[in-house]
Amino acid sequence: MDSGALKAFITVIDHGSFSEAAEVLHLTQPAVSKRLAALENQLGATLLDRSQRQLRLTDAGARLLPYARRILDEVHNARQALNSSGNGVSGNLALIASHHIGLHHLPAWLRKLNRDYPDVSLGLQFMDSESAYDRMARRTAELAFVTLSETMEQRFEVQVRWEDAMAFVVAREHPLADLANPSLEDLAQYDALLPEAGTATYRTISRLFLDQGLDLKPQMPTNYLETIKVMAAVGLGWSVLPERMVDDTLTVIDLPHRVTRFLGGISLRGRELSPQARALLAIAEELQ
User: What is the rounded CA–CA span in Å between residue 231 and residue 220?
Assistant: First the structure.
């Protein structure tokens, strides 16, 4: 089975169209179609249903997909094994970082990486953590630095992790800032500025309120913590932010509830890491 044909098959599925797959693979659309047709002829089965506007896997395609990914992973692993005897740490490193990690952690790591390993080139993407998991599953990057989730699938492997303590915060002029002994009941009376409902941070806060039988009043959800910080600082509601983001524009609400999350670097289980990926992980662990 030709690895190029398998790559074309997977890329068409991941991107939902032949034209986008062609762009990703740096091929013409007819070349992608030809590779897929050759694979179908070899297997004696139709892999994609082309009768609808949206491409869909046939039963045969759905059965092939996990095997195709594993085959390409093993091809990748073989290349890594052959390259491991090379000299030094060099080559491209495809990397994903959440916006928060990209702003508050990644610069120091990349500064050291660039200084110690100048022959490493980066392909860097920024996105929210939830999107990063999806992109990693599609093999668009070797590493992703994200907010770790308690519901993370087994196909992901945590390579490095650290605790990120968080604080309840509010604008200095907000009514909650003047309370001597604030409680969750007090916060429940005001708007909450939180990431979207599917995020680990939102689930943590929502669970706290649910355990107390209280309702949240979420407003203007966004996954950009810097945006949330600005909105909280101008008095639009209370929020929960990493302690390292708290400055003199905000007041910490002293609650008897400790909120923390874990950040970390993940890879795909069973997919060997390149020397440059391992070098960056070592730097991340060293500088935490």
Answer: 9
d(C-alpha 35, C-alpha 41), whole Å = 10
Q: Which residues pair with 146 in a beta bridge?
A: 264
pLDDT for 4 beyond 70: yes
Q: Contact 47/64 with Cβ under 8 angstroms?
A: yes
136's tokens: 């990693």
Chain segment 56-90, per-residue pLDDT in tens: 899 999 999 999 998 998 988 888 888 766 667 88
Q: Enter the pTM of the model.
A: 0.83
Q: Are 125 and 281 in contact (CB under 8 A)?
A: no
Burial-class residue 134 by CB neighbours within 10 Å (0-12, 13-18, 19+).
exposed
Query: In this structure, what is the dihedral angle of CA atoms 111, 115, 121, 126, given to the nearest 10 degrees?
Result: -10
State the Cα–Cα distance between residues 64 and 134, nearest whole angstrom: 20
Helix axes 29-43, 18-25, angle to 10 degrees: 100
